[in-house]
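Feature request, filed as a ticket because there's no other form

It would be nice if the structure record came with a short human-readable summary line next to the tokens. Right now we just get the raw output. Example of a typical job, pasted below so the devs can see what we mean:
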Amino acid sequence: MGCFFMKPIFVTHELYQDFILNQLNKYYSNGILTLVSKDWPIITKLWISDFSCITTFISDTYSIKGPLPRDPASMLRSYLLFLLTNPTIGITKWVDELHRVPLYAILSGFEPGDIPGVGTFYDFFNRLWGFGPDNIKPKLKRKRKKFKKKKLKKGEKLPPKNPGIVGRFIKRFLNRGAKKKYLPADRLFEFFQSQILDASADLGLLGNLNSLSVAGDGTPLVTASFPRSKPSCKCYAQGVTQCNHPRLFSQPDCDSGWDSSREKYYNGYSLYMVSACDSKYDLPLYPRLQPASRHDSVSFVTGSIEFAQRFTLGTINRFLLDAAHDAEVIYELLEHQGIEPFIDLNPRTKKNYSSEGDIKISAEGIPTCSIGKEMKPNGYDKSQNRQKWRCYYGPNAKTFCKKPCSNAKYGRTFHTFSKDNLRLFPKTLRSSEKWKLVYKRRTSIERSNKREKVDYHLESGRHRSTKMWYIRVYCIMMCQHIDAWYSVKKDSLNLSKIIFNQVA
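Raw output as currently delivered:
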């Protein structure tokens, strides 16, 4: 008996479009089944989205022997369609929907009546993930000691468990550098960047690729009400109540953290996201799942370094962050990476900066003269990386100031150097219109996170592995980009006319 090569067959996007036309003509042209207005956005989104390259991308995961596998592009397309239409249900119910609604089957790339089973979907997820473990940490580990949960105020963040860890981490990185390490989700990001981000970049949806502005922020991802574990021994059956053996956890990568918006502790991950600020569609760029207990500043360090090592489509020029990231070492990290930080000052860390002479520096980094007047900015000298400041009264100081501190005709001047304090003396002054104009785009990351959690019901997943949570996150991010493609192309593409001409 000869060997049969049973790698998946590559199906072009044009063949998929022909399939849609033929199937819609077969099932929706006789009046028994009809298309309504809400169907057309979904049809258009799948029509314009080319996922044929997924077949080549995961070809190495298939054996050369065995039955002919399902088309990988159709499997991915079906899962994205699931997120676009019914993200609150599970895969089992989605398979039922494919049987019930012929349109969903057709748009996936399946003939009605020839629907893959639930196991086929999970087999595809395994191949999409690659060859890494389902979880980063081993399931067998000792149970953590319960800590006293402090009730915090609404909007108040949980302080870092290990104060100073951010500084130590960054100092080590600045001194030694960091080698690019393989991450289990790298395979997903490689596909996402080469097929999704690249397509959005070609449409101009990410902004200026030579000078990108990005934002980062963490958001709670609830995976369960409480940690689930079971014993790995028989101590309890033998009457031993004080057992120190490790337990088997179903979600070893998750732990407990504080959700400041919902004002409660939760079990799950902290999802740290990076988005494109200059995109009017608030498009996501990179996700990183962290333990729920991890502070945003710690998540940023690992996430930003990994993102910089993997993102190849453009040059990051600015990083926009909220006050939770207001630490001098984070400014040093971004300076080292050649990225200008736009970070809001944290009121809890505000303190006056001492300087020589009678000029004082306020907690906002503004020089004040001997009578307490804030000096006025007077241009930035790029050659020396210094900001020039002038007297509040300027040349009229002798006339209006009761205690003039300079005899200069121009008035008293003062310089602040960025190298002296990157936090207080940024290249772009926080009080300037440019800073305000740039920083207001930081909210793009909050809108992006909201879309993932509210529009696409991210937390409705009932997964027990980091693998499945990453797949869900990445595919929701793909849907966000597909939505943007649709917004750009819908007015120039009259798909209903194309379909009806074929159907007629």
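Something like this underneath would help us a lot:
The chain has 16 helices and 14 strands.
Residues 190 and 310 are 8 Å apart (CA to CA).
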